[in-house]
């Protein structure tokens, strides 16, 4: 079964915010066998909303919308949908009470904007929103369903998980979709494509392969749709086994997980701890790791030594070496990793030092020159990277590369 | 003038990647007076591509597409467009040479996938891609323009900035769009709406106001379209002056800049330095700051003290206080800030300690309890936050709140 997603809001169309809702919703729908065939972002204009939902409901049995449900005058979605489905807006007493209670907690009394939030189209089914006052509305027309949710990501996620998904799977008969993502590193996309071309040509007819390159890695995704999930999974697993033989050294995970999640698994399995010493990555590696719940079990901390003074004082880097070789050097990055392992008292420590750009490069060490190091009970190892001119990319790739060094060590 | 954006790729529709290209492109087009009226994401299917571009070209004089131009078999956009515009694919010798040279640098020889990359539709105009081998193609039909670019963000950005924008502004006559964003904190969206309702009602007829709430803040955006940029800017500035009088204490910036950018301005202006001591934010604040080029001028580093051991050993937090009050306490967060200021030798230090969740809360200190502190030559100040159940949101709001504490201090 196919669904469409519509996101509403001028802020998306002028590029003030990135629409992250669609990707999250698509992923969630896929788990329940619902594919997304189109995502459309439109402005807060009644005409646009009507034309777009009309077209979407012709193509797809399920249309999910987010946005345009705030209390302010620029948000017109509720009124527009109510008119479109020929309904009247009436006050929902339960919702009114909920909003009033929520405001009372902050010592605020109900104002006309809040009262407006408590109106719902008569005839629409309401799915609870546990994290906000904008209601989620379910409309039906000729067995087709249109659902309107608020655009605030955590409200939308709460609605999907606490009621909407079950309402959808009760209403529709869905088939199964199986995706499998294989994470590879160290081979560029076109070389990989050549290595895999025989295998790709012999894939089962209804199985689709996609290549997704991103900084430092290529994700390979196999997708297949059918009736029986176990049968589909078996077909995919057989292909993955063949792939392993073609790429014995370059697969680092069999799920679309981030490298830091793979490292978390390995560190937990072995009961080891990690710390980081970050210069050019500026805390990004620590942030990646601590974004995941439970990271305190294996991550002890980081020294972001942006200045040389901190490299010396906190990490114990030799000041003569700093002067002689510069901060971006093998000597310094290795001492950073060793120093972090010691001061943070961890089993492993990773370190980065480089010129992220866009300025600060020299002929000898151009922007994109990065040294990475890993310290452990074996001592220390390091590697020089020659990356890009773009700061954000240099930070991301450096983080990936040094975590991948650790991943290989942990998998030994 | 209005444009539409189409992004192609199954990875978007299954939610494997978030489409960040559209927001970036929309923002860029807005600068040149081109509004975006619709963004559509579709799969790598020829039928979908043809139907969608046909509809978009009927509605808008300019359609920009990204994606589907990779060297692998799942990418079919070039072939589809070539067929749609009745053109043939022919080899571009210059592009062929460029790809060959690039591969030679890595010691790789041309394979059939790379050769395919050098084909272009005869009759399409080529805009240079300095960061990759997929060509950017410009098609014209009845004076309407469709442009196809690769989906890799830094390739697309390079193409837009190094040729495509000038090609667009030469081809079309555009009007002016002025957006102004005013960043507010400390007042919720609906209360703000009430405070501003009189002002909003008296805005010039063609001026639009939007409310954009996000963790810890509400952005207000004024937008207006017309012929003369200076006149539009003057109208907007007049409204901003009125707004300042309504909200004398809650505006922290007059551009859509992140809080760390405002802090960078202030620190540079005053010649002061900053360090961070992060527990629950886990390096996120350091990462925010170091994402911006030039941050080494005012940012010296961070101690991410995820474990109590590091709070004691590196930051000098008193072990008895840690035991008595717990890591998430006023005593500990203040000592963290003071300790960081000392060990990192900075003018200011901010610190966070909290329960980010989803687990780890108690009755006394539920998930979302966060202490933040700021140390400076005045001593130390701190604040308790009672945030949410959601880890990501707690990390972001804590970072914003503590940086905002610093912003207020710097603006004194």
Features:
five-stranded mixed sheet, Alpha-Beta Plaits, 17 strands, Molybdenum Cofactor Biosythetic Enzyme, Chain A, Maf protein, homodimer, alpha/beta, 412 residues
Overview in brief:
2 copies of one chain form a homodimer. Chain A is an alpha/beta fold and about 400 residues long.
User: Largest sheet of chain A, order of strands side by side?
Assistant: 2-1-3-8-7-6
User: Which assembly state applies to the chains in this document?
Assistant: homodimer
Number of continuous helical runs of chain A: 16
Structural class of chain A: alpha/beta
Sheet of most strands of chain A: 6 strands, mixed
Q: Helix proportion of residues of chain A, in percent?
A: 40-55%
Largest interface: A-B, 107 and 107 residues
- Fill in the CATH topology of the largest domain in chain A: Molybdenum Cofactor Biosythetic Enzyme, Chain A
Count of extended strands of chain A: 17
Shape of chain A: globular
CATH superfamily heading of the largest domain in chain A: MoaB/Mog-like domain
- Just name the CATH architecture of the largest domain in chain A: 3-Layer(aba) Sandwich
Q: Could you give the distance between the termini of chain A?
A: 44 Å
What low-confidence regions of chain A span 5 or more consecutive residues with pLDDT below 50? none
The overall pLDDT of chain A, averaged over residues, is 93
Strand content of chain A: 25-35%
* CATH class group of the largest domain in chain A: Alpha Beta
Tally of separate domains of chain A? 3
What gyration radius of chain A follows from the Cα positions, in whole Å? 26 Å
Protein name (chains A, B): CinA-like protein
Family (chains A, B): Belongs to the CinA family.
Pfam families (chains A, B): CinA, CinA_KH, MoCF_biosynth
């Amino acid at each position: 079964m196919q669904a469409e997603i519509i996101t509403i809001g001028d802020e998306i169309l002028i590029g003030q915010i990135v629409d992250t809702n669609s990707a999250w919703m698509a992923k969630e729908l896929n788990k329940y066998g619902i594919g997304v065939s189109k995502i459309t972002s439109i402005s807060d204009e009644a005409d646009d909303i009507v034309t777009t939902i009309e077209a979407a409901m012709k193509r797809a049995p399920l249309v999910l919308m987010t946005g345009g449900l705030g209390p302010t005058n620029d948000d017109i979605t509720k009124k527009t949908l109510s008119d479109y489905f020929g309904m009247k807006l009436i006050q929902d007493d339960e919702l009114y009470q909920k909003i009033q209670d929520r405001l009372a907690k902050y010592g605020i009394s109900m104002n006309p904007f809040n009262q407006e939030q408590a109106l719902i189209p008569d005839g629409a089914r309401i799915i609870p929103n546990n994290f906000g006052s904008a209601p989620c509305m379910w409309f039906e027309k000729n067995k087709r369903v249109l659902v309107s949710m608020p655009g605030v990501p955590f409200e939308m996620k709460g609605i999907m998980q606490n009621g909407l998904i079950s309402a959808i799977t009760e209403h529709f008969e869905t088939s199964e979709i199986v995706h499998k993502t294989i994470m590879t590193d160290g081979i560029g996309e076109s070389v990989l494509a050549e290595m895999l071309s025989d295998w790709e040509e012999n894939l089962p007819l209804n199985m689709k392969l996609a290549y997704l390159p991103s900084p430092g890695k290529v994700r390979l995704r196999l997708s297949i749709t059918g009736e029986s999930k176990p049968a589909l999974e078996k077909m995919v697993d057989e292909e993955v086994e063949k792939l392993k033989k073609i790429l014995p050294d370059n697969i680092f995970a069999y799920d679309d997980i981030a490298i830091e999640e793979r490292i978390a698994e390995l560190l937990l399995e072995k009961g080891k701890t990690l710390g980081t010493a970050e210069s050019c990555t500026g805390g990004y590696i620590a942030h990646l790791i601590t974004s995941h719940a439970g990271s305190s079990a294996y991550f002890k901390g980081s020294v972001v030594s942006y200045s040389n003074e901190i490299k010396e004082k906190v990490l114990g880097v030799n000041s003569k070496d700093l002067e002689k070789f510069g901060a971006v050097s093998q000597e310094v990055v290795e001492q950073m990793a060793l120093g972090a392992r010691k001061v943070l008292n961890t089993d492993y420590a990773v370190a980065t030092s480089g010129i992220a750009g866009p300025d600060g490069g020299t002929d000898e060490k151009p922007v994109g020159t990065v040294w990475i190091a890993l310290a452990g009970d074996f001592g220390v190892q390091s590697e020089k990277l020659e990356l890009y001119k773009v700061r954000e990319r240099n930070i991301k790739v450096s983080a990936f590369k040094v975590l991948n060094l650790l991943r290989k060590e942990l998998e030994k």
